[in-house]
Amino acid sequence: xxxxxxxxxxxxxxxxxxxxxxxxxxxxxxxxxxxxxxxxxxxxxxxxxxxxxxxxxxxxxxxxxxxxxxxxxxxxxxxxxxxxxxxxxxxxxxxxxxxxxxxxxxxxxxxxxxxxxxxxxxxxxxxxxxxxxxxxxxxxxxxxxxxxxxxxxxxxxxxxxxxxxxxxxxxxxxxxxxxxxxxxxxxxxxxxxxxxxxxxxxxxxxxxxxxxxxxxxxxxxxxxxxxxxxxxxxxxxxxxxxxxxxxxxxxxxxxxxxxxxxxxxxxxxxxxxxxxxxxxxxxxxxxxxxxxxxxxxxxxxxxxxxxxxxxxxxxxxxxxxxxxxxxxxxxxxxxxxxxxxxxxxxxxxxxxxxxxxxxxxxxxxxxxxxxxxxxxxxxxxxxxxxxxxxxxxxxxxxxxxxxxxxxxxxxxxxxxxxxxxxxx
Length: 424
Description:
It contains 21 helices and no strands. It has helices at about 1-15, 20-35, 40-50, 60-75, 75-85, 95-110, 110-130, 135-145, 155-165, 170-195, 205-220, 225-230, 240-255, 265-295, 300-310, 315-330, 335-350, 355-370, 380-385, 390-415, 415-420. Helix 3 (about 40-50) crosses helix 14, helix 6 (about 95-110) runs parallel beside helix 8 (about 135-145) and helix 19 packs antiparallel against helix 20. It is globular. The model has no long low-confidence stretch (mean pLDDT about 80).
């Protein structure tokens, strides 16, 4: 027990002094592995390789690259222009267009930070110009940037599948309806706030403009259909689909976005992908070492026994788990939260005979909330830093959408049919 406490103390101290999260996880996990498990240093360092030695994880850099290519090569702009022409003249139309664009773009990029920057660059200035408050403009982008973590193909679902040995294709399917539902909730919030802002509504796009923008956006819009259709049709695996997504974006960019199809933009896409992939994979290494050690120390078994002995309904346990995710989300990034908690909580969920697929959806929905929860919300910092906006403005604007995300998550919890109906 003393060894366990000392390890957690090391973890907390490193976090407090501002050490990288992968280092905090690796140092505490390494301490347990060396002292309690008696592993040699060679075995301890090999955990970083073991964490990423998975076929399904190859999909992560490919989907990230596809999303970055969408951003820098032009297809994302065409997609937003069409959606804005379609609904921009309606009450709350421009924020609603931003939500829909972020849902599609986020699903392809797998990165909430990339999504909020890309969609924010296209939408924020237009929203402010039409009379939407700065707070609302930044808030809707921050919240909608998280949608790609639920709507397939989702990086979070891939990571969850890799850590639990579930089928990523099934998790992709399970996330479709909840993702659309969450997007719908955000659109409703955006419409309500638009009446408070008393915004100017642009003229409705002409039929010719609508058709023209639709034709330009069509190659990007059908990309999710091609990728997901191939996965569910058994044509290719999720990992192969990720590689095909890169090839697809390159082709449509070459054919339909010649102006943006440059070597400089391609280099930007590669660099952004390499940086994000490196961050994710080194986090996985530290988390792998941490989770291996706490499993050896029987922490999951203790939590499972405690939960079973509580003798309360399953949904009560799930509420406690969601509260745990939200608490961690205030201080940690989503990926380390997942890799710290899943080895502990997943056996508990299985012991309660709770549907693991529904648990995956609840987990991702909870982690989405953490990305706009101050003080560490990654989407908040990305918007504030990139657009040089005061953090208080971004945080204030995100509050109504934060409430919307929480309500949507609770609905998904109490209506598991949204996640599992297709498997029944």
